[in-house]
Design brief:
Blueprint lengths: L1 E2 H4 L7 E5 L4 E2 L4 E3 L11 E6 H10 L6 E6 L12 E6 L3 H23 L7 H13 L2 E5 L5 E5 L19 H8 L12 E3 L2 E10 L2 E10 L5 H19 L11 H7 L4 H4 L1 H8 L9 E8 L7 H11 L4 E5 L2 E8 L7 H4 L1 H11 L2 E4 L6 H15 L2 H4 L7 E3 L4 H17 L10 H13 L3 H10 L4 H8 L3 H15 L6 H19 L19
């Protein structure tokens, strides 16, 4: 089929009106100017001026499909047959005919190029690579867990949509940011534009079954990639159908599907969340907490570690999703957590043995709360190895990291609001100057101040926490007061210091921006 979206590609600014009864022309023999007395055929696209098209429509059989392109608007009072496809364009007739001929020639060229890729070893890769070379866009075949199964990349600048550590996975959060508001099916059909790159994801369907998704990324101002997707999707679907290979790997695991829908589907269909919870293999109580576990730096494969986690939480729903193990802890009477009873002590031993980390969400009951707690926990989990608020524990509580997560959300929207990505403007200038002093003199006064405030500004408690002599703590305090003249008397001041230290620690440890702290022109001169 020749789709009208493909046929009209690059003509958005000249199209005056569309009245379509079909998506395209099933079989196309060519273009033709209307001729009086000749039978009207469904496999011909007729191109003419207003009077010619009006006369042709009057003679058309209302039970047969007729497709016409009109140069200029149709005359007033023209009645359109029920099965007519009529597109009016603000173009002279010769230019309109030539543009349609050029578009058809390009589609034929693409069709021939794709047909030249013969089935065999690495067929999907070669097919996508061919598509990339023809359109200067990148194409990714992905499954419903956002794994990239095959790809064809046009340029290196497209690689920034994959994670820098693996270059082989799109996280659910990245998909969510790329497409924003998605349809109820969880598959976006509209295009977003980020950093001048257009993104579009198309489902590959075999009747009522989704085989996978095609993600297209590239600078495509005229929309040719979308047109090309029709040709490419047809071949990808045929290949997956012929091999009986579905990339919809979630269909047999209700809990995994539940987690997969957390980012997008339940945002559009919040009432379905609670209904899907009733379908989980293990029934849940009124209070729930998410436990998300990562073994990314472990020498043992996840397939070996999953059964051990599953054995610890045998009475809970457990699944593997996006390279993490997700556990749904359920509580019937209260949300209180007994670490030994819930299995967290056994998990801590497993995490220590295999270099893993975990995050335990806050308790929740409402459908909005369930989504929020999962998404927060999933994003905070990546920060734990870098921040390590409790050096002797690998299973962290979400509430300990919410201050950093608030900063993380600010960082996500900073460029949009202020036109730069400099988080230092959310910190006290005094703390920034103290950081500069540390960097220039190889000291740790700012981190010391952070732990001093965390320990309620108690000298004895701080000395014990940092394994320092009490006199060393007092010396460092006096040095800080001498350098920046900061006061620790008011509780509001302590809160501001704590927040400022968190901002700068986030920049250094999560964003890796330590050197840039020397560049910002924020100065503070203490009063004497």
């Amino acid at each position: 089929m020749i789709y009208f979206d493909s046929l009209c590609c690059g003509m958005d600014t000249v199209i005056l009106s569309r009245s379509l009864s079909t998506k395209g022309v099933e079989r196309l023999s060519g273009l033709m100017l209307p001729e009086a007395g000749r039978p009207i055929r469904s496999d011909i696209i007729y191109v003419g001026d207003g009077e010619q098209i009006a006369a042709l429509l009057c003679d058309a059989d209302p039970e047969k499909i007729v497709t016409v392109f009109c140069s200029g608007p149709l005359p007033n009072g023209v009645s359109l047959p029920a099965k007519a496809n009529v597109i009016s364009c603000n173009m002279p007739l010769p230019a309109l005919h030539n543009r349609l001929s050029e578009n058809l020639a390009r589609l034929a060229e693409w069709e021939n190029a794709l047909s030249a890729v013969l089935p065999g070893k690495d067929y999907l890769f070669h097919l996508l690579q061919c598509a990339a070379s023809l359109t200067d866009c990148s194409f990714f075949l992905i499954d419903s867990c956002f794994n990239i199964v095959a790809s064809g990349q046009a340029t290196d600048r497209m690689r920034d949509i994959t994670q820098p550590d693996t270059h082989q996975r799109l996280s659910p959060a990245q998909i969510n940011k790329l497409f924003g508001q998605l349809l109820a099916s969880g598959v976006p059909t509209g295009a977003a534009n980020i950093y001048q790159i257009s993104y579009r994801m198309c489902p590959l369907r075999d009747q009522d079954r989704t085989l996978g998704h095609l993600l297209i990324a590239g600078a495509d101002p005229d929309g040719w990639a979308e047109s090309f997707s029709h040709l490419l999707s047809k071949r990808l679907t045929a290949c997956l159908r012929a091999s009986d290979k579905s990339l919809d790997v979630l269909r047999d695991d209700p809990f995994r599907l539940f987690i997969d829908r957390m980012y997008v589907y339940y945002r559009q269909n919040p009432r379905h969340l609670m209904a899907d919870m009733l379908k989980l293999p293990i029934a849940t109580g009124p209070w729930i907490r998410f436990l998300i576990i990562s073994f990314e730096d472990s020498a043992a494969p996840l397939s070996e570690l999953f059964p051990k986690v599953n054995a610890i939480f045998s009475s809970s729903n457990v699944t593997v999703y996006d390279g993490k193990i997700v556990v749904l802890l359920s509580f019937s009477k209260s949300a209180r957590v007994d670490e030994k009873e819930c299995g967290l002590e056994a998990l801590e031993e497993l995490l220590q043995a295999h270099n893993g980390f975990a995050i335990l969400s806050n308790a929740c009951t409402l459908e909005k709360g369930i989504r929020t707690e999962y998404i927060q926990s999933r994003e905070v989990l990546d920060m734990i190895p870098k921040l390590r608020l409790e050096a002797d524990k690998r299973c962290a509580r979400l509430n300990r990291y919410l201050g950093y997560y608030t900063i993380h959300l600010c960082a996500s929207h900073l460029m949009e609001e202020f036109g730069h990505d400099r988080l230092v403007y959310f910190a006290y200038p005094e703390i920034l100057n103290l950081t500069r002093y540390d960097m220039q003199n190889n000291t740790d006064l700012r981190d010391f101040l952070f732990y001093y405030v965390v320990n309620d500004c108690n000298v004895t408690q701080t000395a014990k926490f940092l394994h320092m002599h009490r006199n060393t703590v007092l010396y460092k305090l006096n040095k800080i007061k001498e350098l920046v003249g900061i006061s620790l008397d008011a509780s509001a001041e302590k809160t501001g210091i704590l927040h400022s230290c968190q901002v700068l620690r986030y920049m250094e440890r999560v964003q890796n921006q330590q050197a840039s702290l020397l560049d910002d022109a924020i100065e503070y001169t203490p009063k004497h």
